[in-house]
Amino acid sequence: MLEKKSVLIIDDDMQYLELLSECLENSFAVKAACSISHAESIVEENGKFDIALVDEYIGDDIGSDWIKTSVDIGSVASSFVLYSGLATEDAIIKGLECGADDFLAKPISLLTLEQKLTKLINYQNKIEGFESELSSKERVINVSMAQASKYGACMQLTSRLNHCFSLDEIRDELFSFLYGMNLHGCVAFYPLSGQPLFFSSKNGVCSPVEVEVMEVLKRKPRLYRFGNRTIFNHPLASILILHLEEGAIDTDIYIDALASVIQCVGARIAFITYKNSLVEVQEQIQQAVVTTKKMIEISKRHQQEVMNEIVQNIGMSFHELDMNEAQEDYLTELIHNALKRHTQDDVNFLEVTRLLDDALSSVDKLKSLNQEQRVVPPELDEDDELF
């Protein structure tokens, strides 16, 4: 059986007070007071009432004034009903102004009175339901905002990772995120060339058991949970979070977010590996081109020296040899053809040199482009948030 709602009746007319009490006691838990001071004693003893039914004139006290004070206090009753023998427009407005929820004119119809009080109880129930709904929605909104904030932090992390150009920079961005989210964990990198690297967000260096755990679990699926710990894997990296409570809302958020982050980390490591290899090839090409140009210059000088020596020796031999005109013409033709071949070689050397210069220019442009890619975007202000 449902507990009866409580009603406090205040009236200095004892007979009228008794009449109202008898009328309502079957449906409500009724307390009666013949004065304001008596009513306050009852409230102090019984606590807050559901409804206070108050006469406008109670001895020297004014019911509407007391209602106004009681509404401000908030501990007397959930709803107030003011009644008066003067059912004027001013009296009704006064009831509204003092904070009463309803107004009745004397003489009061007892049937109407019970109906009005029942409607007030229904009104209170609707208010409670509305407040409960608001509270529930507020909790949902607060949770949603907290979730959005954490997802926003993960989005920022992904953006920052895309501007990292070394494993140290990736590690620092990951640890900065973990610090901000009050998480503790370890990070492992498995570069294609070189030994695996292990770092702890708490101690800087991973303990032997942390290293062993990550080495063992890196062959597990991308997401693997064991107790309150979770490891996120990629062929080139792992992130081990040491305290993600089972069933917590934040845990689900971090799992969803970090499952994507580990993919971003792996992709960035692959890019850095490719980029570093490309830079190494660029340097090798540049060194080979520079060396080849130097060798061509040396060959050209050596060839010129040899040709000059040949021409000089043959010219001197013309004066020492006793040759007829045909012999001199023959030797002159040989020298002429040799000089023509030498001229063609010069053209070839010039073309090769031009191609090598173009290759050097392309390498320089590629280096410049790589330097431009390293420009880090401006830092976000502390007040700038995604959510």
Essential attributes:
5-stranded parallel β-sheet, 3 domains, alpha/beta, rod-shaped, single chain, Beta-Lactamase, 5-stranded antiparallel β-sheet, 387 residues, Rossmann fold
Structure notes:
The protein is of the alpha/beta class. The chain folds into three domains: 6-133, Rossmann fold; 145-274, Beta-Lactamase (2-Layer Sandwich), CATH 3.30.450; 275-373. 62% of the residues lie in helices and 15% in strands. The protein is built from nine helices and twelve strands. It has helices at residues 14-24, 36-46, 63-73, 89-98, 110-161, 167-180, 208-217, 249-320, 325-373, and strands spanning 6-10, 29-33, 49-55, 57-58, 61-62, 77-84, 102-105, 185-189, 197-200, 223-226, 229-234, 237-241. The strands form three sheets. A five-stranded parallel beta sheet has the order 2-1-3-6-7, sandwiched between helices. The chain has a five-stranded antiparallel beta sheet with strand order 9-8-12-11-10, sandwiched between helices. Helix 3 (63-73) packs parallel to helix 4. The longest helix has 72 residues, at 249-320. The two termini are 49 Å apart. 22% of the residues are buried. Residues 375-387 have low confidence and may be disordered.
